[in-house]
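hey m, so remember when u said the tokens were messed up on ur end? i reran from scratch. heres the input so u can diff it against urs
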Amino acid sequence: GGIDVADRYVAPTVLTGVPAGTRILEQEIFGPVLVVMFYTTIEEVIRFINDRPKPLTSYYFGNDKAVSEQFVSNTSAGSTVFNDTLIQFLHPNTPFGGVGASGMGRSHGFAGFETFSNVRPVLRQRMTRSPFQLVYPPYTARVRTIIRQLIDRLFKP
């Protein structure tokens, strides 16, 4: 694929034979670039993925249910898509986001509402008697006795 810096254009590019340790394999790709890796076993793929930071999305193409379950059970990613691309981002109700270095939290749908909301608990203590009043001063002789008994039970062998 070609690059036109003036137009800020990167042509769709497919890379093969990329050696391990190359930057394109170590960073998330945000562009029309696809690295194609060849493998012999699913264990080899799982090891390759797990030896690197967790990806934003992992894609699996194939129809073997046992192998796809092995893939999803032994790898971690923000999302995993089988036999398609980009649908995890396009679906409005599917939580989208990363894990680890690829991000935290989820956007889209209710998950996005929860991620970008600040939950604010509000507690109100009734003005009537409460068992928590035992831990507030002033301590009466009775309360000091109860506290000593609790400490003896909890902290003495």
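this time it looks ok to me. The mean pLDDT is 82. if urs says something different then somethings off w ur setup not the seq
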